[in-house]
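Hi C.,

You asked whether I'd gotten around to modeling the 304-residue construct. I have! Everything is below, sequence then structure, no commentary in between.
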Amino acid sequence: MKNVFLKISFSLLAFALLPTAFVTSAAESPTNDGKLRIICFGAHPDDAELHVSGVAAMWAMKGHQVKFVSLTSGDIGHWREAGGALAQRRREEVAQAAKLLGITVQVLDIHDGELMPTLENRKTVISLIRDWKADIVMSHRPNDYHPDHRYAGVLVQDAAFMVQVPFMTDVPPLAKNPVFLYFPDRFTKPNPFKADIVVDIDATIEKKMDALALMESQFLEGGALGHARLLPRDASKKPERVREVRKMHSDRFQAVANRFRPELIDWYGPERGKKIKYAEAFEICEYGRQPDRDELKKLFPFFD
C-alpha cells in the first residue's frame, strides 16, 4: 500500500511540475459522457484563437470540451513591451477570450522565440494530451515562417503515436490514438496545405472576432511588428481602429472560405456551400488516427 501511495504521489508531482504559467478553465464534464475532447496547441497566446476559435465556439455550444494551449508565454511579441509584464498581459487577453468562447486555456512558461523540440518539451506535450484525454489534437504544420510555429508542429507531430506508449510519461497513456490535425497556411515547400475538412463558421464569426478583439496587444497594437502609429492618440478614435481590425479578420476568414470553396461544396452541397461566407480548414496529420469521412462528421458534428 505504501509503494502504491508513493507511486501515485510521484505521478501527481511530476505532472504538477510541467512548465505551466497559467491555466483557466470552463466547467469540465466527465470524460465518459459521450462528449468530444479537443486540445489545440499554438506557439503563442493568439495562434490557436486565430485558427480555430470559430469551430471551438461551435463545439463548446454543443457541450464538448475544448482546450487551447500556448507553448510559449509570448513575452517578446510586442514592439514596445517585453518580459513578464507582456506575458501577464497576454495571459489575461487569452483568458478573456476563452471565457467568451466557453473553453479552457493554458499558457506555458517558455520564452517566446525560444521554443525547441526537446525531449522535455515533447514529454510536456504528450502529458497534456494524455491528461486532457483528447479525441482531437491540433497545431501548426512543421513548415512555417516562425521557428516557434515550426517547432510547435514538430512537438505535436512527435506526440502522435507516443501518447499511447506506456512509460513515456507518468500520465497514463491513451487507449486510442487521437486524430491529429494541422492549422492552415500558404507555404508550399516541401508540401502545400491540404484541406481535408472545411467548416462553415458563419454562425460564430462574430464571437470569433469579438474574442480576437480582446487581444489588443496583438491586433489593435500590431504585436511584434507593430508601431505607435497604429494607436490613435485620441481615445475617441479607438472604435475606428477596432473596426479596421475586425475588417482585416473578416477578410481573412472570407479568404479561407473562398480558397476552399470546392471543399465547402463537397461537404455541404452546392446550394449551401456556395453561400458560406466564413470558414476554418484543417489537414489530417498522417501520424495520428486516420478518420474516414463518417468519423470526421462525428468529430465535427456541424454538417447536418
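If it helps when you're writing up: Confidence is low (pLDDT under 50) at residues 1-18.

Thanks,
B.
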